[in-house]
Amino acid sequence: MTQFRKAAAALSCLAATSLAHAAWPDKPIVMVVPQPPGGAADAFARPFAQALSQRLGQPVVIENRAGANGNIAAAYVAKQPADGYTIFFGSVSTLAVNPHLYKSTGFDPLKDFQPITLTNQTPNVLVVNAASPYKTVADVVAAAKAAPGTINYGSAGNGNTMHLTGVLFEQKTGTTLAHVPYKGGPAALTDVMGGQIPMMFHNLNAVLAYEKSGKVRILAVADNKRATQLPGAPTMKEAGAAGVVQVPWSGMLVRTGTPQPVVERLSKEMVEILKTPAFRASHEAMGTEVLSSTPAEFAERLKADYASMGALIKAANVKID
């Protein structure tokens, strides 16, 4: 009789757990964005959250937690319950770069988060002032080798992916450039267009419109393939700088330990959104590549980039501001 009661209790518990998972979600979901309202991440997250809300039948509320290059938002999510009601819109900078730059971030990217899907990526590009004498990557390399350490390039600050693309460029081309860190990418790009500095490595979607209007010139794309929006620009490999690949990505994650049925539901709904032509069109027109992945594929990319970024930062002795 005792064994029967134990079995019955176990079945009852299993049924209750299954019912709870089947009912998920039964309350609003919070999507934490590590940028202030109006930023690039916010602009992607808001329509995505709206589409996800329609599919899940519950509000998906954006919560902007800016600061410390995303560490504040990531640390917050890392302390939330593992129930799928808090989603983190993470990036390569926060999850694969920051842990190698800060003494304490408040989270472990490989232990605290369950990846759901990659959402979008944008390659970095080498962009120069429109009046610059540099017409090709070969021109930059030749000038840098002729006068090491004299050619300035801007970035959004020490340790960001723009800076690291420059570090990688130096390593792969055998050159020495002069890094000029700014407080944000827009400030650096403004100085490139104004002629205060000759060039920088920046996200394609941030400079595409300026290239089309003739204010800057994009010399190469730091990707293994050419950009659909700018097919005339060669890859770094085609331009003679093989190995210079830097494609910053973003993706959706939840706390490690979130029930598998919840992970699977989120994965299914998110991937469907990301494959919808209407959702993709506006983002891709601006130079952002919308993509999707399985949780396992995202986890592998995070792990690989965490290792490669760490090695690059260590080899170049990169320090934050």
From TrEMBL:
Q: Which UniProt keywords apply?
A: Signal
Q: Which residues form the signal peptide?
A: 1-22
Q: Which InterPro entries match?
A: BUG, Bug_dom1
Q: Does the keyword Zinc-finger apply?
A: no
What SUPFAM superfamilies does the annotation carry? Periplasmic binding protein-like II
A Pfam family (short name) is TctC
Q: Keyword Hydrolase on this protein?
A: no
**What positions belong to coiled-coil segments?**
none
CDD domains in alphabetical order = PBP2_Bug_TTT
The cross-references to PANTHER family, in alphabetical order and at most eight, read: BLR1237 PROTEIN, TRICARBOXYLATE-BINDING PROTEIN
Q: Which family does it belong to?
A: Belongs to the UPF0065 (bug) family.
Protein name according to UniProt: Tripartite tricarboxylate transporter substrate binding protein
Name the species this protein comes from: Cupriavidus respiraculi
